[in-house]
Amino acid sequence: MSTDLSTVNRPISQANGLPNAHYTDDTVFREESEAVLFANWAGLAVAADVPEPGDAKPISFLGLPMLLIRDKDGVVRVFQNTCRHRGMILVSEPRKIEGAIRCPYHSWCYSTKGDLVATPHVGGPGQNAHPDMDKSTLGLIEMRSHVWRDVVFINVSGTAAPFEEVHAELIARWSEFDQPMYHGGTDSKFELSVKTNYKLAVENYCESYHLPWVHPGLNSYSRLEDHYNIAEKGKYSGQGTLVYRQFEGDGGKRFPDFAGLSDKWDEGAEYITVYPNVLLGAQRDHAFAIVLEPKAVDHTVEHIHLYYAAPEVDAEMRAKNTSLWKEVFEEDIFVVEGMQQGRMGPGFDGGRFSPAMDGPTHCYHAWVADQIVSYRQARDHAAE
Q1: Separation of alpha carbons 165 and 169, rounded Å
Q2: CA distance 68 to 45
Q3: Of 108, 118, 117, which is closest to residue 85 (Cα–Cα)?
Q4: Once rounded to an integer, what is the mean pLDDT over residues 27-45?
Q5: Among candidates 63, 94, 24, 334, which has minimal Cα distance to 192?
Q6: d(CA 13, CA 6)
Q7: pLDDT at 221
Q8: C-alpha dist (Å) from residue 384 to 54, 306, 324, 372, 377
Q9: How does 339-370 read in b/e, with b if 16+ C-beta sit within 10 Å?
Q10: What is the largest distance, in Å, between two alpha-carbon atoms of the chain?
Q11: E strand or H helix that includes residue 378
């Protein structure tokens, strides 16, 4: 099934959104996964998932078995979680790697840097080497990865330009936050499982148009008119507020600020999607990252993590802050699930965009459409 994307990349006043099939059809979802999620820098996890050397976490990314690991030197890496011998899964649950990564099938062993270091009995009983088995060529398959703002991005296809090049504009935009930030720990992360396509979670996060009706509490002090669109056509879009209100605990206590920020951030904050599936928030006193895990065409798990400017902050305030953000993000669930259900309506043509309010969402749709069109062109050229 090949969808018609010709109306998506028109000027916003004339454009339609992505066709229904991009939210409901498994065949289209597979093509889109190749073109959008595999061909670009997609979010997989956060480095805080493996905080210490030797920590390893298996992750399935659209059916691909991945192993997130912090090697013995503290470098975060992503490998295919597959033994090079007979394809056995190496690590089945999060754990600390003591020594080497050992395959449970035939005990082939790999270092935390992916090198094959032991092949017991490979040349026969008691013979741990064989002239036709060159260990130097049989290390784990490493995925291209890059860590920015603690998010671990991967490029499955291996064809994307370097992350720093692809996202140079956004890195420059938030250069003031290029400083240490610290994950709040177990009380500063949570997951939301939602019955929706991951793109609908992106679309909802991109814009502030829905605030008065979906987030009345938030809108009571950060009103719709206090927000602005971030809609430069490129690799990201989102929204910002001019009236960010710092979190306060008992007696007016506040979290420490990130150091050296300009006046813009005294009462400003920005909420940006790094295409295709990472949602980031930047504020003077804390930050967050949301990695959208596409489980199926109509199922997404949102992994939310909160960060602070100091390694230790008030525990009670931290837990309450997490609770408040969870409440805000839970308010969006009925919206993204409702849009998913609405995409089953056969007469829906992708919808229209408000030129004043929907710029960030239109930018995302146009970018997704561009990725798919380019993928189809390359595929058709290769088939000629």
Answers
A1: 9
A2: 8
A3: 108
A4: 98
A5: 334
A6: 14
A7: 57
A8: 47, 49, 55, 19, 11
A9: bbeebeeeeeebbebeeebbbbbbbbbbbbbb
A10: 75
A11: helix 359-383
pLDDT, tens digit, 9 for 90 and up, residues 215-274? 666 555 567 678 899 997 779 999 999 999 888 888 889 999 999 999 999 999 999 999
pLDDT tens profile 304-334: 999 999 999 999 999 999 999 999 999 999 8
- Strand 42-46, strand 151-155: pairing: antiparallel
Contacts of 144 (CB under 8 A, 6+ apart): 154, 155, 158, 160
- Tokens 């899964």 correspond to 89
For the beta carbon of residue 31, count every other beta carbon within 10 angstroms: 19
Token pair listed for 262: 């300009």
For residues 78-89, give the mean pLDDT: 98
| Residues constituting the chain | 384
Q: Distance between CA 264 and CA 267 in Å, rounded?
A: 7
- Contacts (Cβ under 8 Å, ≥6 apart) of 150: 46, 47, 48, 181, 183, 289, 305, 307
pLDDT tens-digit profile of 109-142?
999 999 999 999 999 999 999 999 999 999 999 9
CA-CA distance, 165 to 160, in Å (whole number)?
10
State the number of CA atoms in the 13 A half-sphere of 243 facing the CB. 10
In whole angstroms, what is the distance from residue 198 CA to residue 54 CA? 31
Which residue type does 256 have?
Answer: P
Is pTM beyond 0.90? Reply is: yes
Is residue 108 within 8 A of residue 119, CB to CB? The reply is yes
